[in-house]
Amino acid sequence: MSPAPTPTSENLHMLIKYLLPGVSLALAVALAPAAVAAKPAKPAPASALTIAAKPTIIVFSGATTLSGRLSGAKVDGVKVRLEQDTTRPYGDSYTATGTTALTASNGRYTFGVKPLVNTRYRVVAQASPPVASPATLVRVRIRVGLNVSDTTPARGRLVRFSGSASPAHDGRTAYIQRRSATGRFITVGRTTLRDAGSTRSTYSRRLRVSRNGVYRVKVVGDADHINGFSRLRSLTVHG
């Protein structure tokens, strides 16, 4: 005779089939609830937390949105704390921003931020136990302005290129560039950013223009900011 299978609710009919002599059907049925009660409960799903930035690159003084989702046994109304690291190497010195949010019924949360320097963010949910998200890096471009003294100069005339860079980057170089036939920008002049207060630097340079062109100004980034570019300005030469 084959050994009797483990008595569970799923194979109760097998238990009855393999009753030993002298074991009543009533006894077999009475044993079934205990077998079902002994079945281990499923563990609660582990909590997890996501984060994403959109956009991941902003221009100085601009804003971005951080959002993500908490998953696990409890996702509704959980406090989420925003943390940041603004110094390289990123990831070893997170500090609380003082900003918190509560997750929605689907576990989602959102923060609006305006970082002034390149910043790595993460969030920590006050779940049980607390859970931290991976990190996301938001990079900040230097804001570069560009003005020209004449957009329709006579051929060979001097045109003044001037503007500002924010935040202040005194002493750095502003590269005046013209777009080539292949679409690349070629540097045609350089000038130094000068002190204009605590929030910005300025530049000014005159260049002789002999043909039509599309121009921009570039300021190279540093540890806190990435390269900044002005808007494009078109010059149409006549004469």
Report on the architecture of this protein.
This protein has helices at residues 12-17, 25-37; strands spanning 48-49, 52-54, 57-59, 64-71, 79-85, 95-102, 108-113, 119-125, 131-132, 136-141, 143-144, 147-148, 157-166, 173-179, 185-192, 194-195, 201-209, 213-219, 228-229, 233-235. It has 239 residues and is mainly β. The protein has three domains: 7-40, no CATH class; 48-141, Immunoglobulins (Immunoglobulin-like), CATH 2.60.40.10; 143-235, Immunoglobulins (Immunoglobulin-like). The strands form four sheets. Strands 3, 5, 6, 8, 9 and 10 form a six-stranded mixed sheet that branches. Strands 11, 12, 13, 16 and 17 form a five-stranded antiparallel sheet that branches. Strands 14, 15, 18, 19 and 20 form a five-stranded antiparallel sheet that branches. It is elongated, with a radius of gyration of 33 Å. The model has no long low-confidence stretch (mean pLDDT 89).
User: What is the CATH C-level name of the largest domain?
Assistant: Mainly Beta
Q: Helix/strand/pairing class, anyone? A: mainly beta
Mind telling me the CATH superfamily name of the largest domain? Immunoglobulins
**Outline type:** elongated
Strand content: 35-45%
Distance between the termini: 111 Å
How many structural domains? 3
By DSSP (H or I, 4+ residues per run), the number of helices equals: 2
Oligomer designation: single chain
- Major beta-sheet overview: 6 strands, mixed
The tally of strands reads 20
- Which residues sit in consecutive blocks of at least 5 with pLDDT less than 50? none
| Share of residues in helices | under 10%
CATH-defined topology of the largest domain? Immunoglobulin-like
What integer is the average pLDDT?
Answer: 89
CATH architecture of the largest domain: Sandwich
H/E order of the elements?
A: HHEEEEEEEEEEEEEEEEEEEE
Output the radius of gyration. Answer: 33 Å
